[in-house]
């Protein structure tokens, strides 16, 4: 019996590792393919036979896209829009999620349901109203307007996720702080917020990735290089009779680097935050 249980456990662990390895391979193969393509000369990319490993490694695609195009400006625009979106979501979303988690008021359940319904609507349905609104207030083709547009679909996600982290913190801790003379906002800032800091970092990273990679809103709400982001810039590089695979691959790899660096910096806080939000109490 014991041997049978041990064998089943080993088989279960083996299957879990195999499934995890399959997912990793499935996710990493396109990135590896883009990296290898970006290191090939243009003449070696489109050939009669597929060459997986480049015969000659070159960085001319990276040099070309960085010096002969406006890609640095696009990356800077994406960074500004992403940071603005994250700042708005952190400030507004933290206060909103704390209020929903701690206060009991009429319409609270309907409000959370509304946040969920907003995420269910396709983005195409709100593009035209957002375009008209941005044009009427003078924010069309601006980085601030684009950040506000991103907030419309990322803020509900932020509130939903942060509410779970606030629910996991016992309210008795705040009651004790208020007995000692702290205000409601003081108890939140000094007691609750440090306890959910890991969850806040994890949620902010999730929002940052969503804003960094967004394409549809950036395509429809920007028209000039001064406000376009990198996904739109890569799409505009594709011509009717030209497809620069090397430059596109190099641009994709460059755009991945900030996300990888961000994960490397905050990975411990993210894991701690996601684990803390999984168990209440």
UniProtKB/TrEMBL annotation:
**Lipid bilayer topology:** Multi-pass membrane protein
Q: What keywords were assigned to this record? A: Cell membrane, Membrane, Transmembrane, Transmembrane helix, Transport
Q: Where does the protein end up?
A: Cell membrane
Q: What is its main location?
A: membrane
**Start and end residues of each ABC transmembrane type-1 domain:** 75-266
User: By its UniProt entry, which SUPFAM superfamilies does this protein fall under?
Assistant: MetI-like
Residues that span the membrane, as ranges: 12-36, 79-101, 113-134, 146-166, 187-212, 245-266
Sorted alphabetically, the Gene Ontology cellular component annotations on this record are: plasma membrane
GO-annotated biological processes: transmembrane transport
Q: Which InterPro entries match?
A: BP-dep_ABC_trans_perm, MetI-like, MetI-like_sf
- Report the family membership: Belongs to the binding-protein-dependent transport system permease family.
Q: Which PANTHER family match?
A: INNER MEMBRANE ABC TRANSPORTER PERMEASE PROTEIN YCJP, MALTOSE TRANSPORT SYSTEM PERMEASE-RELATED
Protein's UniProt name: Sugar ABC transporter permease
Say which species the protein is native to.
Answer: Inquilinus limosus MP06
């Amino acid at each position: 019996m014991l041997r049978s249980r041990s064998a089943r456990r080993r088989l279960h662990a083996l299957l879990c590792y195999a499934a995890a390895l399959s997912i990793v391979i499935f996710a990493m193969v396109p990135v590896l393919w883009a990296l290898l393509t970006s290191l090939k000369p243009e003449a070696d990319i489109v050939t009669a036979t597929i060459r997986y490993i480049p015969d000659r490694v070159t960085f001319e695609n990276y040099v070309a896209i960085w010096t002969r195009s406006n890609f640095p400006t696009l990356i800077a625009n994406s960074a500004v829009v992403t940071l603005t979106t994250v700042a708005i979501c952190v400030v507004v979303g933290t206060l909103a999620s704390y209020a929903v988690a701690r206060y009991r008021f009429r319409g609270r359940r309907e409000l959370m349901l509304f946040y969920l319904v907003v995420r269910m609507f396709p983005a195409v349905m709100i593009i035209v109203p957002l375009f008209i609104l941005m044009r009427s207030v003078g924010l069309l083709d601006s980085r601030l307007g684009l950040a506000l547009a991103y907030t419309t679909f990322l803020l509900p996600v932020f509130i939903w996720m942060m509410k779970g982290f606030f629910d996991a913190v016992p309210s008795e801790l705040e009651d004790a702080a208020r007995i000692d003379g702290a205000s409601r906002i003081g108890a939140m800032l000094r007691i609750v917020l440090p306890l959910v800091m890991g969850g806040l970092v994890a949620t902010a990273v999730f929002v940052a990735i969503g804003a960094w990679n967004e394409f549809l809103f950036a395509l429809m709400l920007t028209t000039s290089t001064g406000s376009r982001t990198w996904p739109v810039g890569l799409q505009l590089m594709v011509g009717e009779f030209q497809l620069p695979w090397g430059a596109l691959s190099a641009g994709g790899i460059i755009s991945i680097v900030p996300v990888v660096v961000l994960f490397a910096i905050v990975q411990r806080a993210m894991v701690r935050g996601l684990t803390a939000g999984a168990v209440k109490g």
